[in-house]
Amino acid sequence: MRFQALWKQEFEKLEQWRVLMRELRAVLPQFEIGHATATSTSCFRCTVFTNRQPVEASHEDGPRERRWGVVGCLSILAPVYTVYGLQYDYTGQDVIAAKVFFDPLPPEMQALAEVVGRKIEAMFGAEALPRELAETRIPLIVEFLEPPATTLFHALFSTDPENVAV
Fold first, then answer.
1. Which domain holds residue 26?
2. For the chain, what is the radius of gyration of the CA atoms?
3. pLDDT of amino acid 153
């Protein structure tokens, strides 16, 4: 009940989050900007992704495509944010592989992550949660994760970081 009440209170920031996404579209027109907030997680989320690009595949796999990008997350539980990377491989419409990247991000994701992070800091006054702190184990059940698997990242952001609608 408290979590739902907190989301109800935090929804006041939704319009400001939409402004953030409009500003990202203006400065990153070559990327697809998406709204990936889900009230089952404890953060606002946006995605910044490339279009699908062909990748080499073995003959039996058929044609494959890849897209990559970053996810910006603003916690509703604390004034912190994180930006992490994602890569999806597709065969047709099916995602056949998803890979999450944390610090250090691959070189092609670093500048993009910096733009998203600076925008979140400027608009919301949040601070980046250092990766070492995000990996701290916590004695809480978060969604379907139980200790010792749960971390501060799971509690403040998401237990399923690769699951964003792209």
1. 2-128
2. 16
3. 98
